[in-house]
Amino acid sequence: xxxxxxxxxxxxxxxxxxxxxxxxxxxxxxxxxxxxxxxxxxxxxxxxxxxxxxxxxxxxxxxxxxxxxxxxxxxxxxxxxxxxxxxxxxxxxxxxxxxxxxxxxxxxxxxxxxxxxxxxxxxxxxxxxxxxxxxxxxxxxxxxxxxxxxxxxxxxxxxxxxxxxxxxxxxxxxxxxxxxxxxxxxxxxxxxxxxxxxxxxxxxxxxxxxxxxxxxxxxxxxxxxxxxxxxxxxxxxxxxxxxxxxxxxxxxxxxxxxxxxxxxxxxxxxxxxxxxxxxxxxxxxxxxxxxxxxxxxxxxxxxxxxxxxxxxxxxxxxxxxxxxxxxxxxxxxxxxxxxxxxxxxxxxxxxxxxxxxxxxxxxxxxxxxxxxxxxx
Length: 376
Known about the structure:
- By secondary structure, this protein is an alpha/beta fold.
- The protein folds into two domains: 56-181 and 362-375, Rossmann fold (3-Layer(aba) Sandwich), CATH 3.40.50; 195-360, Rossmann fold (3-Layer(aba) Sandwich), CATH 3.40.50.
- Helices cover 42% and strands 19% of the residues.
- It has helices at residues 18-48, 71-83, 98-105, 120-128, 144-150, 163-170, 209-223, 240-243, 255-264, 293-299, 313-316, 329-340, 343-360, 363-375, and strands spanning 3-8, 11-17, 56-63, 86-92, 109-113, 133-137, 156-159, 176-178, 199-204, 227-231, 247-249, 265-270, 304-308, 324-326.
- A six-stranded parallel β-sheet has the order 4-3-5-6-7-8, sandwiched between helices. The chain has a six-stranded parallel β-sheet with strand order 11-10-9-12-13-14, with helices on both faces. It has a two-stranded antiparallel sheet with strand order 1-2.
- Helix 5 links the parallel strand 6 (133-137) and strand 7.
- The longest helix is centred in the N-terminal third of the chain and has 31 residues, at 18-48.
- It is globular, with a radius of gyration of 24 Å.
């Protein structure tokens, strides 16, 4: 692009550069949009705030999952949620003697996350000694070959998959509750981001085969956008070379960076894990209808979410008002294209999702509900 000049006293004077003018205009619009998003989100938070729940006079012994990422972040979110609803929380690892810890601290309930690592002999001994026990399964229905052997050892079973409630009841569990996860508002919240985190379209997660198939179908569309794909196994893509510059391969992203990318994206895609993936232990092929934790984390960042259609989505958020769904690669492309070109509609849906998340889907909400079940 050329530089326009005028002559004044025989000297060339630069008056404007077309590229600078366009860049300045685009930057001003982007800056205004980001400022408006953060301002409106802060207004929603100021209006609603963090709901304060009555502190119940109970002591909880919390047993962590004892597994690597992403479980430590999940453990921390639940511990913080517990501290907002009960008077005392003590956490231990399943590698420790949970029986000894319970004998020392005398908790009102022993709550175990996942339950895969904690030896069942310890769970049985806890109950024999009169301690009440509860397990919260994190990955239903994908590892039900394991969990059906674990669930009967507990007094209470909480599962994030609605279809697993009847499964656990059928093997003799009497206190079974559908209990989805939530958002940790200290990790996932609206914030301004650096340019390096900003994209049009973002997807963060392991490349299970259903996700690979979807992305291969829409690869040429994604190539034309500022796209980020991050997670393990994305080199499985047939269109890997086409999208390689958009892929962060083979690393687990921290909650902090995940939140930054969610905030920096115009649209975040959520595509659930398949029930028949080769990495699962779900020989019954029990179907999934409930939402994953990312559903709440994306909406907690006040960013538009496009999620594959599951029946429980509409129980958490109002479709096309608080969240947008799709059921095929063609519909996904249509929704992406529409909302990338309809800024105001995209923002309003994201604001409504953020509002709903603060009102109903934080860990404080979940743990308050759990304590109601356990003690009232």
